[in-house]
Amino acid sequence: MDTSYIINEFAEERENYFNAVSPPIMQTSNFVFNKVDDMRKAFVDEYSTYLYSRGKNPTVDILRKKLAALDGAEDCLVFNSGAAAIFASVFANVKAGDHIVSVDKPYTWAQKMFNDILPRFGVTTTYIDGRQIENFERAILPNTAVIYLESPNSWDYAIQDLPAVVELAKAENIVTIIDNSYCTPLYQKPIEMGIDLSMQTATKYIGGHSDALGGVLSGGKAMIEKIFNSEYLNIGSGISPFNAWLLIRGLRTLPARLDRITASTKKVVAYLKGHPKVESILFPFDESFPQFELAKKQMKGACGLMTFVIKANNIQQIETFCESLEHIFMAVSWGGHESLIIPKCSGIQPGEFDASNKEHRMIRLYVGLEEPEYLVKDLQQAFEKM
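and the corresponding structure tokens:
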């Protein structure tokens, strides 16, 4: 199925809504039944019909079908945030006493779930450096139920060999879950490589305008239906029709935005690599990246998000640099129209800063839709003020 067809036409039955180019927002909480038997059937199988918008909603369904098709999956669910999608994917596949193998330093709220919530139910987690398949092999226990991946991650862009992990997991009957937010389905298709559940935060590239939250979970129909009938309905973490409509709107321009961001990122990476105040740069599609060959093998592209290590003797220099930026905003997330920056030292207290620790001097930069020359000029003047 062509990407253009999925984005612009698939799942849109325009004859049902006056041939409108843009689908309507079905802003309703519930749905009417004319027959008692129809309502009875809906109570038995809410996955297959419309009963209450906590479960299924026509606007959300258009988005679901498009996102599942982009992932090459049988079905998907759309949550009100990426964190909710992660939570449901893991909880649906563990029970008391189970064990999880997770890549080191996953997304903050995934790690909080592993560290603070799951132990209350006797579920333990082992963190590993996922860049080596041997680390997965050593970490697996008889009660391992889930392998949690994030490839690339969003700070040092560590990549896992997905086919190798899949082969290992299937041999041990372990469910594989990946956070694919960095790539989106346009640049990486984990489901086609055998991953069981592929998650992405739709807040970022899917939405693209920094105005809507969302999380996507794609996989096989049986798995998605299981999650729908349990975690999805019970927690009530589904996306609202209005936010689903915003994400459909964002999808329309996803390829064009990724193309532009990719082109701009190459220019910004080249500038930073040549700057005397930059010690090193981390970007999966740069030849200096340690896993460059694996990145090219698994990913169709990389864009927007990079990390550079700034040369600084103290935390004040880093703070001055970041606070001197006039057009690149200091904020979390990525994937929107605006360029963003986060200094790693914002997560530690000033007294804990260690200039000899490269990680403390990391700055994550997201390149948005601005002209690359505009961004380079802003970076340059901030470097000069350090």
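(Above: one complete record from the training split.) Residues 254-273 form the longest helix (20 residues).
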